[in-house]
């Protein structure tokens, strides 16, 4: 109990707990003030197919980059009806939510995930018995350098967009999408969707919905958060460049300022545009806090696990065993990735996995290979932890994705596993290349994207032919209009002239907009990353 009190009283951790409460309140305002309704009114008429709704869900998930819970709640509610109307299976909707939110929030550039990951790196420094001054890099700087090594998260994020745009499915998801398009059943007949926890916040207001209440809080979070971190790192002082400022900053305090602005702007917009009165706005703050209680409990317990492991000397014991085992240091990233996958799958928590492994990985890597391997270890550790989140049925984010997509939970897990395994398999291959001497992320990351795209296409072709289903999933309209020969598909009597595959133009507003926004987002992430070098 003393250890739990100790971690909660830590100044960094205390700031972090308060900031996630503010983020919950800000997200509640975005939802309840009608910002979601305004977004639906703005783009709803442009979404006419299942493909459009899937791409839209992916895009909104990119905008909500500051918290995975918030992203799941806001994105799921914003796109659920559109997905239902356009016959996207509930399983696919849940997959897009789950495999977009965690990868995006782990990169930021402003998110509570960053604050938590930096706090874990600080614990790792303490376990390794060195300080940032001694090794010449701060915990935040090490996090920034780890971003290009988080290969799994990049691939998981890429796969969502690639599969949505190309409409090439495989595994159980292929069957689910065919059912949704042909039979217009977005859930299987005996599916049991999880209950909806939106009762914590209530229904969104339909009084004067405006896009300002969607975009203004998010923009304020980004601007205030980044400016605060720059200022707190001494960026306003002469002779301090941007990179130095961000490496020397107080991450938790900067994010706390940003999250307060997020909540305050959301509240001002809700009251100012008349979508709710002051009493309703006050209640919404408390309701937003409630949505973060599970996250806060997980965080406190995860910190406590990490602290307990440090107190009993787990890190030093593992370091001694591994150093004496004669395992080449170049294979350490692969071992850490596999260990993170296993722990996260069995425990259901990526944050708990980070708390367990970070205090082990940093001293182990430093002893076996030196400072240069630490960014690699952190990147693969964070990625492996999130893979476990994606495939574990007891993961909180997986459960929430099922809830807000309206999906049967086990159906969501079983349809997502083949996609998560594809990204993890390519990541393992990249780490094997690293072990034999290919150590540049400028080579491994682009290569992994190309291999993943090829794997998706190959698995799609194989599975579609095996199941006698379309490789490119057609729209419901194409099936209803007789453009797709359903009888030939089901009877296995296809000929070269039989049309069974969907046809889509890639030169359309929604896919083009998606590609443009993703490129801009990745430029922001990699620009943010360069501050650590």
TrEMBL record:
Residues 104-434 form the Na+/H+ antiporter NhaC-like C-terminal domain. Pfam families: Na_H_antiporter. It is found in: Cell membrane. Its main location: membrane. The chain crosses the membrane at residues 16-43, 55-74, 149-171, 211-232, 252-273, 285-305, 331-357, 369-387, 431-459, 509-531. One of its GO terms (cellular component) is plasma membrane. It is a multi-pass membrane protein. Keywords: Cell membrane, Membrane, Transmembrane, Transmembrane helix. It comes from the Archaea. InterPro entries: Na/H_Antiport_NhaC-like_C. The keyword Electron transport does not apply. PANTHER family: NA+/H+ ANTIPORTER-RELATED (PTHR43478), NA+_H+ ANTIPORTER NHAC-LIKE C-TERMINAL DOMAIN-CONTAINING PROTEIN (PTHR43478:SF1). This is Na+/H+ antiporter NhaC-like protein. It comes from Natrinema pellirubrum (strain DSM 15624 / CIP 106293 / JCM 10476 / NCIMB 786 / 157). The lineage of its organism: Archaea, Methanobacteriati, Methanobacteriota, Stenosarchaea group, Halobacteria.
